[in-house]
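pinging the channel bc i need a second pair of eyes. not urgent but kinda urgent?? the chain im working w is below, pasted from the shared doc
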Amino acid sequence: MGRGITAREGNVGRHTRYRRIARVAGHSLLRVTIQGDRETRVGSDLARIGHPVVGDARHGHAPTNRHFEERYALDRPFLHCMKIEFDHPRTGARVVAEGTLPGELTMVLGRLGLVALDVAKEVMVG
């Protein structure tokens, strides 16, 4: 979740794209896609364009982080890898691993009024 993003989608550098899934209470829930085999730092990249990740102690917005910690008990960055794909280094086979949103992040979304998130369809239900 990023603070204050107004554009529906865009680029952060050459290898990172974002798409806003939902907007709530002045914050945007994003789907970020990193392309290529480069190491990237999503938190610092988003902060550099003025949209820090909520809960990011190093690059975040301290008053917002404090608000989310006090009100929603969020004591970590609101950042989670939902899917990763890569070619296996020995076999060359495509490896895909998918996950779900952790309970503490789901709880924050629920308390914000966003009841469910269908990541595959990028649909919020509230």
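so Residues 62-72 form the longest helix (11 residues). and The domain at 2-125 is CATH 3.30.2350.10 (Pseudouridine synthase). — does that match what u expected or am i reading it wrong
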